[in-house]
Design a protein that fits this description.
Elements lengths: L2 H12 L6 H12 L5 H14 L7 E6 L2 E6 L4 H10 L7 H13 L2 E2 H8 L4 H9 L3 E6 L7 E5 L1 H7 L26
Antiparallel strand pairs: 1-2, 3-5, 4-5
Helix pairs in contact: 1-3, 5-6, 5-7
Length: about 190
């Protein structure tokens, strides 16, 4: 593997969140004191992705949250789920998940609009989502009192492993077959 790919690998590994090609380019420019073409960075990432396809590695380089990061491969889901289960204290409550889903699909949205949909007060859930940086304040509404508008953050994209809001499931993805009574075709 070439020298540039090694540096890209180190940067992706150390980045606390997905790192974009532009961020990689900026770091590498400072490191080498010369411009590094995006084409070379893209090729370096491709080299890494090819390297980590091997079964010798339990993780791979994945594009997620608008950048690149190391993620474990699906084959290791069982062992990872045990770890996550043990750390479940950090998981989102059902109330926070419901609130987050409304914000994700309706954004930008005010807290009162979320409360109207949920039918309950959402102060605590919104506060927890802000603390976890899954949502962020997107501005103020033009409505009476100019309430804050909430939307999802880049951390939300990373948390759910999506690159854009277009990757969210659509309502048709949740459609279930209608219940049937008795045996069909008799």
């Amino acid at each position: 593997m070439d020298y540039l790919a090694n540096h890209i690998e180190a940067l992706i590994f150390c980045a606390p969140k997905p790192i974009t090609e532009k961020e990689l380019q900026s770091c590498l420019k400072e490191m080498f004191e010369a411009d590094v073409p995006l084409k070379d960075i893209t090729e370096g990432i491709g080299t890494l992705q090819e390297k980590y396809k091997s079964d010798d590695f339990s993780f791979e380089v994945v594009q997620s949250g608008g950048g690149f990061q190391f993620l474990t491969k699906p084959a290791y889901q069982a062992s990872i789920s045990i770890l996550l289960k043990q750390q479940s204290k950090k998981r989102l409550s059902n109330s926070s998940l419901e609130t987050l889903a409304i914000i994700a699909y309706k954004q930008p949205v005010t807290k009162s609009e979320v409360e109207q949909i949920r039918g309950v007060n959402c102060d605590y859930a919104v506060q927890k989502l802000l603390e976890k940086e899954l949502v962020e304040i997107k501005g103020k509404s033009e409505g009476v009192g100019r309430p804050l508008l909430y939307g999802t953050s880049p951390t939300f994209m990373d948390y759910f492993g999506i690159n854009s809001l277009k990757d969210l499931p659509t309502p048709k993805d949740f459609a279930q077959d209608e219940n049937t009574i008795g045996n069909q075709g008799e």
